[in-house]
Specification:
The chain is globular, with a radius of gyration of 21 Å. The protein contains 14 helices and 14 strands. By secondary structure, the chain is an alpha/beta fold. A hairpin with a 3-residue loop joins strand 9 and strand 10. The termini are close together. The protein binds adenosine monophosphate (AMP). The site of adenosine monophosphate (AMP) has 12 residues, from helix 10 and helix 12.
Length: about 400
C-alpha cells in the first residue's frame, strides 16, 4: 500500500510517499512559498536527482496538484497514476483533548479539528487547508489525521494541570498538551525494541532535541509527562524558543521595550533560545559548536545552559517515574550532536550511568552509547515521524 504523508504549513507543504510493505520512501519533497511570489516544488524520487519545479502556487490545492503531477511524472515520478496512492496521512498539530489517537478523517473530525484552532492558531488552520486541498484532488482516497498531541493524552491530571484558577481549564482548556507526540511514541517503542524488551515493561525518557525540543517520560508504555505545554513554547530551551521562563518576564519586558504582549511572545518564540542567548550567533548547533571551539564565550554559555536544562528535565522525570531504564536521544541535535549529548551525560552519575566517548561519536544511527552494565541504558534512536504517520494510516484504513 502506498501512503502519501502530508505535513502542511501555512505557506509550505512537506510530503513523502511511502510503500507501507517495504517501508521504503518512494519520493519526498517540499513546496515552498505557497501563496507568494517565487513558489517552488523541490521533489526527490528515491535514488534519483532532486528536481526543482518553479510554478505559481496560489493555493494549497495547486500545490497538492503539483505534488501529484511530480509523483506521476514520466521522468521523475514514482507511480503511474493517482490510483496508486492508496491513502493519505496528515500530520495535525493540535488535537486538544478530543483526540487521544489517530482517526480516519470525516466531516465530524474536520469540525473537531477546527474546534482546536484556538489552541494552535498558526498550525491547525494550515493543516485543515491541506486536508481540504487533498480531498478536492483525491475525493475517494481515505485520509487519516495523526496528531502531535495524541500520545501525551495519557498524562495524569497532576502532570497536565497548571497552577492557575481551575476555571481556566474548565472554560478554555488551558492545560499542558505536549507536542512531537508521534516522535516520542515512535522512539520510545523503538528504544524498548532495541533492547529486546516490551515498552510496557520499562521506564523511558525520550529527549527529542531538534530545532523545536521536548522531552517525555514514558512509563510502561504510557506518556506520563512531557515538557511542552499548551503551546510548544514551554519546557526545554530550543533553537529560537525560550522554553521555561518566569511568566512575569513577559510584562516586565513589554514595559521595558515598549512592546505589546504579542510582540514579546514573538521574541520568546523567534529570537530567544540558544540563538538569543548566544547573542544571535545561530540557532544551529553546528554553528554554536564551531563558535565555542573558536573561544566564543556566549556560544559556550548557550550550550551549557541548554544541556543543563535537558539534564534537569531528565532528573525530574526520573523522579516522576521513580526510576528510569532507558534514556533515548533523537531529532537533529539528539541524533547528531555528540558534544551536547556528552554535556547532558555529565549529569548522569547519580543514575549509575555514563556515556562512552567513543560510542558517542555516532551520528544519525541507532546506537547504545552508555557502557555495558550501566544501570540505565542511554541510546541514540533516529526518529521517523513520516514513517510513524504512514504506519498509523495503514492501521486505520
Ligand atoms: P530537526 O528540527 O530535528 O530537523 O533538527 C534541526 C537541528 O539539528 C538544526 O538546527 C541543528 O541545530 C541540529 N543539527 C543537525 N545536524 C547536526 C549535526 N551534524 N551536528 C549538530 N547539530 C545538528
Amino acid at each position: 500500500m502506498n501512503v502519501l504523508v502530508i505535513n502542511c504549513g501555512s505557506s509550505s507543504l512537506k510530503y513523502q510517499l511511502i510503500d507501507s510493505n517495504s517501508e521504503a520512501v518512494l519520493a519526498k519533497g517540499l513546496c515552498e512559498r505557497i501563496g507568494a511570489p517565487g513558489s517552488v516544488l523541490k521533489h526527490q524520487p528515491a535514488g534519483g536527482d532532486k528536481v526543482a519545479i518553479e510554478n505559481p502556487m496560489p493555493t494549497h490545492t495547486t500545490a497538492i496538484q503539483m505534488v501529484i503531477d511530480a509523483l506521476t511524472d514520466a521522468n521523475h515520478g514514482v507511480v503511474k497514476s493517482l490510483d496508486e496512492i492508496d491513502a493519505v496521512g496528515h500530520r495535525i498539530v493540535h488535537g486538544g483533548e478530543k483526540f487521544a489517537s489517530s482517526v480516519v478523517i470525516d466531516d465530524e473530525v474536520m469540525k473537531a479539528i477546527e474546534e482546536c484552532n484556538d489552541l494552535a492558531p498558526l498550525h491547525n488552520p494550515a493543516n485543515l487547508i491541506g486536508i481540504n486541498a487533498c480531498k478536492e484532488i483525491m475525493p475517494n482516497t481515505p485520509m487519516v489525521g495523526v496528531f502531535d498531541t495524541a500520545f501525551h493524552q495519557t498524562m495524569p491530571e497532576k502532570a497536565y494541570l497548571y497552577g492557575l484558577p481551575h476555571s481556566y481549564y474548565d472554560d478554555y482548556k488551558v492545560r499542558r498538551y505536549g507536542f512531537h507526540g508521534t516522535s516520542h511514541d515512535f522512539v520510545s517503542a523503538r528504544a524498548a525494541e532495541i533492547l529486546g524488551k516490551k515498552r510496557e515493561d520499562v521506564k523511558i525518557i525520550v529527549c527529542h532535541l531538534g530545532n523545536g525540543a521536548s522531552i517525555s517520560a514514558v512509563d510502561h508504555g504510557k506518556c506520563v509527562d512531557t515538557s511542552m505545554g499548551l503551546t510548544p513554547l514551554e519546557g526545554l530551551m530550543m533553537g529560537t524558543r525560550s522554553g521555561d521562563i518566569d511568566p512575569a518576564i513577559v510584562e516586565f519586558l513589554a514595559k521595558k521595550l515598549g512592546k505589546t504582549l504579542e510582540e514579546v511572545t514573538t521574541i520568546l518564540n523567534k529570537e530567544s533560545g540558544v540563538y538569543g542567548l548566544s547573542g544571535g550567533i545561530s540557532s544551529d548547533f553546528r554553528d554554536l559548536s564551531a563558535a565555542m571551539d573558536e573561544g566564543n564565550l556566549l556560544a559556550k554559555a548557550a550550550l551549557e545552559a541548554y544541556s543543563y536544562r535537558v539534564a534537569k528535565y531528565i532528573g525530574s522525570y526520573v523522579a516522576a517515574m521513580n526510576g528510569v531504564d532507558i534514556i533515548a536521544f533523537t531529532a537533529g541535535i539528539g541524533e547528531n550532536d555528540g558534544r551536547v549529548r556528552g554535556m547532558v551525560g555529565q549529569y548522569f552519575e547519580y543514575l549509575g550511568t555514563s556515556i562512552d566517548p567513543e560510542k558517542n561519536k555516532v551520528r544519525g544511527e541507532e546506537c547504545i552509547i552508555s557502557n555495558p552494565g550501566d544501570k540505565v541504558t542511554v541510546m541514540v534512536v533516529p526518529t521517523n515521524e513520516e514513517l510513524a504517520i504512514a504506519r498509523e494510516t495503514v492501521k486505520l484504513v
